[in-house]
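Researcher: We plan to redesign the surface later, but first we want a full-length starting point. Tokens attached.
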């Protein structure tokens, strides 16, 4: 891999710049005054809007001339890029300096800081955002990079003068030329592991394979580091045994005593409250402007980590109370005719289930309509067919997009069975739920605009743009209800 000293960088080009991590690093370097360019097959909000706001020109489509006509000092190659990508191939064959996204992030931004890595199957973005916001609120002036736009900062990255760099650590592989998990590249000194479940079936064979990745992260922490581990999760407890550093466990209303606990959860329209318990003694009453047991667990992880970093609990709890959230995490996008439309990133069955439960707490007594797009390389497989039925059963009405007949990327073997959206809808109907499947976002928007009534809450869940469904639905509702 070509080498490039940081002091010589003037122009950096990003191949597949539209990913949340890639786009955020591009924005960070642009803010430093570097010339930054990028390319991608397609762009979605909110990153497309952010790149435009940051003044980063993006070429749609991958072509060799994007790097050969005006050779950059460094090419950063995203993990969505395949070995036959003409742009990445041209950069490598021409001898241009190149890096994977994780290595570029570490070399250009994290090195020299206390690296705090937030990992886990679920909750990474919210937990990273809460931790960065709380550190800032407590006066620590952190740097961060997170897979979403933080409402408190209006951005997904920040370079502070403080000692800490908080980063969302993904277990997905690094690049086509480096198949190690991304979170191994960030030099973690403190790590949070929120959960360990089977996911990313395109690169992981089974749950044991996923656990092996997390064991590598945990065992690589330095002896003077800290692992903050969710002991609600048996898989996390198992993985934590690989740590050579101190392990601090946390749990929400556990049956067995844990070092840090959240107890006495109470929900209101404004959020959730709980008692913070340390070593069986209540130490604080905490209020967070978020809903759901999973978000209490995320907040608890943040409080434990802040305590390990020396932040007083009073200041930490006060900062969390002011947290404003992340775009596309239970984000209320609009309310028309008394119908609320909420946008969320949930796509794993556990995340779908927990997000629905959170909406019940946030909007008690209102009819809940779940709209789900199976879009990821895992969710389009049949691997979670029955799990999605159980997860979506928490809604009053379900609308699920049909899985398109398109190739599903897989490094673990040919995908022979696809998720059946029609079967999920049928199974839910057998359980007494109103459920339908549709082939396009336009049909979904039309159907929901016709069916929904005042008081309904429509929760749209997808890890992509869902064909612009949220805006299409709001537009149809305005046509019917005015406003």
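Model: Full-length starting sequence:
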């Amino acid at each position: 891999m070509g080498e490039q000293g940081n002091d010589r960088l003037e122009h950096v080009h990003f191949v597949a710049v539209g990913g949340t991590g890639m786009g955020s690093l591009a924005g960070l370097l642009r803010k430093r005054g570097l010339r930054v360019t990028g390319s991608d097959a397609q762009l979605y909000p909110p990153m497309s809007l952010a790149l435009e706001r940051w003044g980063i020109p993006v070429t749609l489509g991958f072509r060799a001339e994007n790097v050969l006509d005006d050779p950059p000092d460094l090419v950063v190659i995203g993990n969505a890029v395949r070995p036959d990508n003409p742009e990445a191939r041209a950069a490598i064959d021409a001898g241009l300096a190149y890096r994977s996204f994780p290595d570029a992030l570490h070399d250009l931004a994290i090195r020299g800081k206390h690296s705090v890595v937030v990992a886990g199957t679920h909750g990474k973005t919210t937990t990273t955002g809460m931790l960065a916001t709380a550190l800032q609120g407590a006066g620590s002036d952190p740097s961060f990079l997170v897979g979403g736009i933080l409402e408190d900062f209006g951005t997904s990255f920040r370079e502070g003068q403080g000692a800490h760099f908080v980063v969302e650590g993904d277990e997905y592989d690094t690049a086509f030329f480096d198949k190690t998990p991304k979170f191994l590249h960030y030099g973690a000194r403190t790590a949070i592991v929120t959960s360990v479940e089977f996911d990313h079936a395109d690169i992981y064979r089974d749950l044991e394979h996923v656990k092996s990745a997390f064991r590598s992260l945990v065992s690589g922490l330095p002896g003077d580091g800290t692992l903050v581990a969710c002991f609600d999760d048996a898989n996390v407890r198992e993985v934590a045994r690989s740590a050579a550093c101190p392990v601090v466990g946390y749990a929400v209303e556990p049956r067995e005593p844990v070092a840090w606990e959240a107890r006495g959860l109470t929900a209101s329209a404004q959020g959730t409250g709980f008692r913070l318990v340390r070593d069986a003694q209540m130490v604080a009453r905490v209020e967070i402007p978020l809903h759901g047991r999973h978000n209490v667990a995320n907040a608890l992880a943040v409080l434990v980590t802040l305590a390990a970093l020396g932040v007083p609990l009073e200041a930490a709890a006060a900062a969390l109370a002011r947290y404003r959230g992340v775009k596309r995490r239970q984000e209320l996008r609009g309310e028309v005719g008394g119908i609320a439309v909420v946008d969320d990133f949930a796509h794993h069955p556990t995340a779908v289930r927990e997000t629905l439960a959170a909406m019940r707490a946030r909007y008690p007594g209102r009819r809940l309509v779940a709209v789900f797009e199976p879009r990821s390389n895992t969710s389009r497989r049949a691997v979670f067919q029955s799990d999605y039925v159980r997860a979506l059963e928490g809604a009053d009405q379900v609308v699920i997009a049909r899985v398109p007949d398109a190739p599903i990327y897989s490094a673990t073997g040919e995908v022979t069975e696809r998720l059946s959206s029609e079967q999920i809808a049928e199974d839910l109907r057998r359980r007494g739920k109103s459920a339908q499947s549709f082939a396009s976002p336009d049909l979904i928007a039309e159907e929901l605009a016709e069916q929904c009534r005042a008081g309904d809450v429509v929760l749209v869940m997808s890890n992509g743009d869902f064909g612009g469904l949220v805006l299409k639905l709001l537009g149809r509702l305005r046509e019917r209800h005015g406003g």
